[in-house]
Amino acid sequence: MAVRQRLTPAQREQFERDGFLVVRKVFTDDEVKGLCDTFMRLHALGLQGALDWYRPTPPTQTDDPLKIYPRIMHPHRYDETARRYMLDDRLLDILADLFGEEPMAAQSMFYFKPPGARGQALHQDNFYLKAHPGTCMAAWVAIDPADEENGGMMVVPGTHRMDIVCPEEADPNESFTTHFVPPPAGTQPILVPLEAGDVLFFNGSLIHGSPPNRSRHRFRRAFICHYVGTSCTKIARYYLPLYLRDGRTIDLPVNEWGGPCGEEFPEPKGPH
Fold it and tell me: pLDDT digit string (tens) for 71-97?
């Protein structure tokens, strides 16, 4: 039986204080390459029209890198490799420590973020998942090294203690998403440099985002999953069914709450 990965008291204390935690080299170089190869293959199949759930735009028809390489949403529903890594014990054991209870998987995504791609304005994930009670958590697996040049992750430490707030409009020249949550007075975003195989875990209320990929040749690919604890009783419709550690699925009542914006954004399509 594999040794279960547990966090140290210092790691748990840092997560409680800052709202995020980096765990280095959760996945090996070979595993990261396997994940990368899987999604590059799915991208190639999508360009050929071989997938009905993922349709990138051929480069002959657009100059927008994010249309050529759009994110893949919920690949665990269609691909066994994505589902296996979403439910990997190494992620789930760390999340169990952070939640204080067993996690359930709600979402998977793969971001290619090719050279020249816009970033994603600062936001809070639980604005979209609407997990209740409590919040969701993310496990952000770096497939490539992520740094300032290629649009690495930015977080605003301590903002996980905030309520979910109604976002403002994002700058479309910098962000491919429309929502922007400004950091509160006295706080500012910091870069979280990551190497391939590292995992950034963060609270669903933490303000986070990323700048554009300003490199000329480097991707900033990431496999990203969201989870809730077993005490969660409601979640937004888009994230059902939830997946248990053993692969079984479970449905919860849908959280119809409109959030801090009322019904202005009644059912947004997931964290971006």
Answer: 999 999 999 999 999 999 999 999 999
Q: Report the pLDDT value the prediction gives residue 190, as an integer from 0 to 100.
A: 98
Q: Right CATH number for 15-47+69-250 from 2.120.10.30, 3.30.450.90, 2.10.270.10, 2.60.120.620?
A: 2.60.120.620
Residue 112 CA from chain centroid, whole number: 12
Q: Which residues of the chain carry a pLDDT beneath 70?
A: 1-5, 263-272
Span between the terminal Cα atoms of the chain, in Å: 36
Two structure tokens written together for 269: 């399509």
3-state secondary structure of 269: coil
Q: Give residue limits of the domains in the chain.
A: 15-47+69-250
- The number of angstroms, rounded, from the C-alpha of 258 to the middle of its chain's C-alpha atoms is 22
The amino acid at residue 195 is: E
Output the pTM of the full model: 0.94
Q: How far is CA 266 from CA 26, 170, 252, in A?
A: 36, 19, 18
